[in-house]
Amino acid sequence: MSDLKDFTVNASQIAVLLMLSTERIRQLVNAGYIPKIGKGKYAVIDAVQGYIRFLRDEEKQASKSAADSGLKAARQREVELRIAREEGRLVDMEDVEAVVSNVFATLRAELTGIPAAVTRDVKLRVEIEKGLNGAFARSQGKFREAGEALRSGRDPLGADGENDG
Predict the structure, then answer these.
(1) What confidence tens digit (pLDDT) does each residue in 4-43 have?
(2) What is the Cα–Cα distance from 137 to 163, expressed in whole angstroms?
């Protein structure tokens, strides 16, 4: 069998061999992937290796494009988050929890004196305090659930939150 380097074909034959159109073969020749060895003549081995080089380059380019696209999306997300924070549409959950805890503590301190201010009856005071403590416990539980829902991407009000109010 003769050396494959010496085996030459024309553009139509390469197109059939590589399952491409003759126009695509011309494009690969013009791009430098398939070298001519004479007028309309190409070495089979050069054509096959040139097409493989082209495919590898395309794969590298697609991979680089995907990586660039991912990086671009990450940068865009970072900018969007920064803008949202600057506009006050985005706050840190720890800050929210600190503010709400502070408000709960202030409200509890304010309401703790109400039973004594309302009545001198010790039994009634105890009942009012029980009611207030129960309300605070339920409110803190709802706040904790809402915080967990926000962290996991769920609706913080839940199905029962729509009926409240």
Answers:
(1) 677 889 999 999 999 999 999 999 999 999 999 888 899 9
(2) 20
